[in-house]
Write a structure and sequence with these properties.
The structure holds two protein chains of two kinds. In chain A, 48% of the residues lie in helices and 16% in strands. By secondary structure, chain A is α/β, with parallel strands linked by helices. In chain A, strands 1, 2, 3, 4, 7, 8, 9, 10, 11, 12, 13 and 14 form a twelve-stranded mixed β-sheet that branches. In chain A, strands 5-6 form a two-stranded antiparallel sheet. Chain B has a single domain, classed as MetI-like (MetI-like fold, Orthogonal Bundle), CATH 1.10.3720.10. The chains are: A alpha/beta, B mainly alpha.
Amino acid sequence: MKRRFFMIMMLVVFSLALVSCGSNEPAAPEAAAPAADAPAEEAAAPEEAAPESGGVLRMLTWEGYAPEELVNKFTEETGIDVEISYIGDNNELIAKMAATKGVGYDLVSPTLSYVATAQADQGIYQPIDLSKVNTDQINESLDAILEGSTYEGKPYAIPFVWGTTAMIVNTEKAPDAGESYLDLCDPQYEGRISYRSKYDTLYMFAYALGLDPAEAVKDEAAYRDVMDQVLDKLVECKPYVRVYWDSRQQIEDLLKKEEVWVASSWDASAWSMSLEDPKFKYVVPKEGAVGWYDTLAISAGAENVDAAYQWINFILAPENAAVIVNQTGYQTASAGAADAASPELAALVAESLPPEKMASINWYFPKPDYATDIEADVEEQLKAAQ
Amino acid sequence: MSAKLKKSGRLWLVLIPYLLWIGVLFVIPHIKLFGLSFVDHRSGELTLGNYAKFFGSDLYRRVFWRTALYAIFTTILTLLIAFPTAFIITKILGKKMKAILLLSIVLPYWISELIRAFAWMVLMRETGVISYLLQAVGITSHNIEFLYRNGTIVIGLVYTSMLFMIIPIINSLDSLDDSLIEAAYDLGGNFWSTMREVIIPHAGPGIMVGSTMVFMLNLGNYVTVTLLGGKNSLWFTENIYNQFIVRFNQNQGAAFGVILLTFSVLLVWITLKITKQDMAEAM
């Protein structure tokens, strides 16, 4: 009798383990949430919960977007603990969110051009309630970002951090480079060139070839045609490339060791290199920089919506946003944060991005499904080309 | 003990950890993967399209065969280095040296594969250690880049999987009584005939287990290949990764995964048949 009971128990345990693995959607993250939170009610009546909300805020964001200094300050002010997971790529963010329909994360930082399309495909965000956002401290980009993230009449994102991608040049080794993106294909720098084998490079070369990917993306055939021309050019340039870089750390290292002289670069990375050694310069060629705008969006599966809004209002306060500007070199949507930033950095920003260069920024455009596939095709064919 | 367990019907209780392991981490994911691979990514209907896409694409087939050939080549290379090493460790060295050598082989594997790949990069990059040493000795007067070549991938893979070849071979050689080797010599055998007719047949199962593990590890490698291979690193696992992460097409990715799995299982099965070995026996 005893034996049979034991065996039945084991069977139950075994099948439970199987079941919980089979349906991997909401079960796992929910189990991890503090039971006392009663998330559903709190979301429904946030005003009442606001005074002493506490709990945990779970964020999915980019490195540098939630400096430890600010996280500690936030926890001190609000009593909310912050848990952060990092992403290296917008697609990774969407893949992680889509796996659980957003459950497990409260606040994320997708790039604007990905917000509305991801919402349409996966439904991973919830609309922004502007009445809970302190819009006074956000600069003039607010309306454009709200509009850019609108899906079925509702905005899904608040502007947060923006930056540009253009070129970094070692002015001692390659003083003449930086006039055009086509310098990334100049045989005289053979083996001293590096860029990513990703979409931002595809856009750069498209603009350099006089094409307009932002217009072409509206039609699948037109976009494929544009990207095929870009692919041909990139294959032609491949012999001159040392390596397609993957991470900021990697390209900075290659530049410092002077294994690479001319490269594509994010502005913040280039400015920090300049501050260390002025021979490195961030240059925006005549085709214009490629620009991106990262946002703050609330997960459809958020369990602590109130904390998410508190963080939004906290991080965009000028004195807090300035910490991000100084630590990472990225610009923020916080009105006045730039004034609080260090003067050396401000000088570099003003030099690299004067008003006419600001006006010529080619912003990331929203991409339909097929565009992601076409770009991935180009990346794979480029890698395979001998 | 085991007879008693069998009799009382409790043998399977002992097997529960194993069943959990194999069921939860192997059988269920693979059934799911298999199922996903026959579903269309957009419409959700049953289809063979994901497989058609592979066989219809020059690119994917080329990358696949490149990956397969490199995996086979590196496995053979690993075996050629590992077998003499294992032989020396088990049959020639004394106990103390044996322990020291074994430890020195195992020790690097305490570090993650990622870190070991970075270590290779530090050695082989243009401003790296090897380039510096060559200049210091006077062999060359300028920096040489060793990274981002096909040869770099081979070195990285051989190094990464060496342990998994050496250990099974040592295991099987250990069980070979030295007196058998002496007897072979007494009966007129020389080094090569003894090796061919006594030692290698005895080590056969170890070689098979080692080769199988190394082949599968290399075929499925991602980190070492992408880091050391640079702009030409194309490996089939990269295509699988792209399908899942870049294109969100887990159905296509699943189909690629099934193709890779089928190929490696087939190849191992054929090798077992050719060498007339039994997997159960080899393991």
